[in-house]
Amino acid sequence: MPQPAGSIGGRDAGASYRDVFMRLPAGWGMGKRGHARKRMALGEKAVLGAYGALSWIAAPAMCAYMLARSARDPGWRRRLSERWAVRTPQLPAGGVWLHGSSLGETGALSVVAEELRARRPDLPMLLTAFTPAGSAAIQGRLRESQSHCFLPLDMGVVNRRFLRAARPALGVILETEIWPGLYAACRSAGVPLVIVSARLSERSHARYRRVRGLVSAALRTVRVVGAQSEEDAQRFAELGPDGLDVRVTGNLKFHFRPEAGVLERGAEIRRSIGRERPVWIAASTHEPEEKVALDAHRQVLAGREDALLIIAPRHRERFAAVRALLKQSGLKIGVRSGDGSPPPGAQVFLLDTLGEMNAFYAAADVAFVGGSIARVGGHNLLEPAAFGLPVLTGPHLFQTRDTARLLSEAGALFRVHDARELAGRLARLLDSELAQRSAGEAARNCLAAGEDVLEETLGLIEPLLPPRPAPSSR
After folding, report:
1. pLDDT in tens, 364-408
2. Is the pLDDT of residue 269 over 80?
3. Is 414 exposed, middle or buried (0-12, 13-18, 19+ CB in 10 A)?
């Protein structure tokens, strides 16, 4: 039994049964399209049935995986009843269910939910996530008429129980969350789905092609896909059933707007650090990127002894390990959970709390975004860009290729390969206010290109919403 190793395409949305079928032999699930057409009805039922059986077989491995992760992150063992749809919020019929798997999607999810709430305050909403970090972010942004729970495990009876409680009229899925069992249950229950800000990396696309029949059967539930780019649209069209409606609407993360109070908190943090000190942040880091950042920072300190590095690991279960690494570095360190603000003389500061990244972006001069020296594929490049920061990354950006290309061509993003190159680029930016300002303005201008993304996305969703209630007569 393969170990559950993360969400689709190698991203960090938690373990899933999809990892089981992703590793099946090529051709399983009617990989040849002609064969699929000849036996469409029977073939779809067969592959979905096989997937359903595999989900039950994989259940013990899934539970073991979640327990193993909970040893480092207790969030994985909390609210387990929601994973089995035992405590799904009971909602009035006819609402909207919105799902964003992990922390990276919750910002865009909240933007869509907030705008829908403004336009249709009559609609109950259920917001779901798969990871504890994503759940925590959603809980911090819930508004009136909005409920939240974990997305349950992708098993037939569990999916049906979830839908009976939530009773949505429409499901809105962020980015690349394809759960065949859940999609099939939605189809049976008459719940149409929309995938927005949809993306499929080259790697994810190659893995999905191995089980094209299963993916095509799942996507039959989807009314429309709003893809981030032409390449994403082509990949969804190839994998989906004939006639799948795929349009290019753009990346919702381009519509990022800082939450109320973030700029003020960032200014307060910066005052505590000192306006004159050069500050850079290594955000969403994975092993070994913290070590690379520390090595680069030592070189920066040789020229700017007052420089401060803020390190924000991607996963909270690594906070303790990164803290131990910092203690061994020989540098003066501070820790957010213990010190609050960077103590006087601190050279490195560990951000070991959730939900504060944007405030620290607002306090920094330059950002390095992780998952890019580590072969993860990169993380959200647009959040630091929105704060007018020059963006540094490693070379591995296959999850954010289009965004990286746009920022790079504008002169807002710079790739580095190792600590030496990172230190050199940091020195050039931190020593030149003009270079910082030029790259930062270019970054902000790139986000202006996404002004219409939210409206385009809502244009896919609104025609599928239930009718407005008739005004009551008096």
Report:
1. 999 999 999 999 999 999 999 999 999 999 999 988 888 999 999
2. yes
3. buried
Q: Which of 260, 220, 262 is nearest to 242 (CA)?
A: 220
The catalytically annotated residue of 44, 105, 175, 289 is 105
- Residue 17 belongs to domain spanning: 8-250
Looking at the fold, whether 118 and 233 belong to one and the same domain comes out as yes
Listed in sequence order, the residues at least 6 apart from 412 whose beta carbon sits closer than 8 Å to its beta carbon are 385, 390, 391, 439, 440, 442, 443, 446
Residue identified by tokens 């495990």 is 153
Same domain, 200 and 269: no
Helix (H) or strand (E) holding 155: none
In angstroms, the CA 156 to CA 212 distance is 21
On whether the CB atoms of residues 239 and 216 are closer than 8 A, the answer is yes
Q: Total domain count for the chain?
A: 2
On whether both 28 and 164 belong to a single domain, the answer is yes
Does one domain contain both 131 and 244? Answer: yes
Report pTM.
0.78
Any domain includes 463 = no
* Bridge partners, residue 227, by sequence: 198, 248
289 is catalytic: no
Count of alpha carbons within 13 angstroms of residue 446, beta-carbon side: 32
Are 14 and 73 in contact, with CB atoms under 8 Å apart?
Answer: no
My answer on whether 19 and 131 are in the same domain is yes
Are 274 and 239 in the same domain?
no
Residue that terminates a domain, selected from 190, 215, 250 = 250
CATH number of the domain bearing residue 419: 3.40.50.2000
Does residue 470 sit within a domain? no
Q: What pLDDT digit, counting tens, does each position of 398-416 carry?
A: 888 889 999 999 999 999 9
Tokens at 70, concatenated: 């909970």
